[in-house]
């Protein structure tokens, strides 16, 4: 894949050939064993696991080549992938599809949808979206932050633990949300440079110094200003603060990036500084690892590495950031899934980690310990 021109809004456009099909894309997003892309026409293509209809093509047949998401043929501007469901903003409205056992599609039902369905009430002005395992959140360009789906840990932030199949307002958040992330059982947001989290708090993943679940937003300790992005993994979270990174939650596999033992069973309920990072521009937490880009365009990762998700050519877990092979400059976007990562870098689209379900868009290899170039369109 290589950048062939700039789009009308200045975005780099990449010519991608996957499974014999060529199309131009502006976004590439990694999910849990599947991947989706937004084309220059604003359409969505997906490939990988499809057990709950998360590929959106009207079937439950997994595919190692791209399929078109039904109805999303134009005007898609943002995309988020959860465990078995996905959501997209289309002309300001929010559409979701896939698994819906907890109401995470927001259409008032708990029926899986094999094609996109309209989220109740969110027909315009949707700004940011985040998909967790079984819940979803969206910010409005004018209005409150809304969440829906599973709420057993308080991850919807509405002051209850009641499951919701339509959006409800998060309690006590006033102001423009500039970053939003949903994890396994929790949610985090950045408002006016301050980090707030709510939901599951096992291993201190809310970062407020405690381990009790919270069904309303709480302040992440010490992160009251200077926060530009936040991202939740399974049982850890990280944030960009004044160009550096701080993480909190479980320490095993080195996922906090502060040099602790990768075999540690401890946790930190307070943010700790990740070693050796500055000029960080983008952050994405996977299941048990995290990757970042810097002002130079380099990619660095740390944490769990069994599937090669750190991209350093090994399967060694790392407790401090290591350079992902081959990236010295030019990374323009980065999205971590549960066991694979994809990025658009210097005119190339690359994925690394597990490809056991065809999430690279090819049948082989079954994975890669270093970034794998997706096929280049001619």
UniProtKB/TrEMBL annotation:
Coiled coil: none annotated. Keywords: Repeat. It holds the Pfam family WD40_RLD. InterPro entries: RCC1-like_dom, RCC1/BLIP-II, Reg_chr_condens, Ub_ligase/GEF_domain. Residues 22-324 form the RCC1-like domain. PANTHER family: OS09G0560450 PROTEIN (PTHR22870:SF408), REGULATOR OF CHROMOSOME CONDENSATION (PTHR22870). This is Regulator of chromosome condensation (RCC1).
């Amino acid at each position: 894949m290589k950048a062939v021109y700039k789009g009308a809004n200045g975005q780099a456009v990449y010519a991608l050939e996957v499974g014999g099909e060529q199309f131009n894309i502006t976004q590439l997003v990694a999910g849990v064993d599947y991947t989706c892309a937004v084309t220059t026409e604003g359409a969505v293509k997906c490939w990988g696991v499809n057990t709950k209809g998360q590929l959106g093509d009207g079937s439950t047949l997994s595919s190692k080549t791209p399929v078109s998401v039904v109805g999303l043929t134009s005007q898609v501007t943002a995309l988020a992938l959860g465990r078995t469901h996905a959501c997209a903003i289309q002309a300001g409205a929010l559409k979701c599809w896939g698994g819906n056992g907890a109401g995470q599609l927001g259409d008032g039902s708990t029926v899986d949808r094999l094609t996109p369905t309209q989220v109740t009430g969110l027909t315009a002005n949707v700004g940011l979206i985040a998909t967790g395992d079984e819940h979803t959140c969206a910010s409005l360009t004018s209005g409150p932050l809304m969440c829906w789906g599973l709420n057993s840990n308080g991850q919807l932030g509405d002051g209850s633990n009641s499951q919701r199949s339509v959006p409800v307002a998060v309690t006590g958040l006033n102001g423009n949300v500039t970053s939003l992330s949903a994890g396994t059982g929790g949610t985090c947001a950045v408002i006016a440079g301050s980090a707030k989290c709510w939901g599951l708090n096992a291993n201190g993943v809310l970062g407020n110094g405690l381990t009790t679940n919270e069904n309303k937003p709480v302040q992440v300790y010490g992160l009251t200003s200077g926060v530009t992005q936040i991202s939740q993994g399974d049982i850890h979270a990280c944030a960009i603060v004044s160009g550096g990174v701080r993480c909190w939650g479980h320490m095993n596999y080195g996922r906090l990036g502060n040099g602790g033992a990768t075999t540690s069973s401890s946790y930190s309920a307070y943010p700790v500084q990740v070693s050796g990072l500055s000029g960080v521009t983008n952050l994405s937490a996977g299941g048990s690892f995290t990757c970042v880009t810097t002002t130079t365009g380099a990619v660095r990762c740390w944490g769990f590495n069994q599937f090669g998700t750190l991209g350093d050519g090994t399967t060694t877990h790392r407790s401090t950031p290591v350079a992902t092979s081959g990236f010295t400059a030019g990374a323009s976007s980065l999205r971590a899934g549960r066991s694979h990562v994809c990025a658009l870098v210097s005119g190339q689209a690359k994925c690394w980690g597990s490809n056991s379900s065809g999430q690279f868009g090819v049948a082989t290899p079954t994975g890669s310990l270093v970034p794998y170039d997706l096929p280049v369109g001619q």
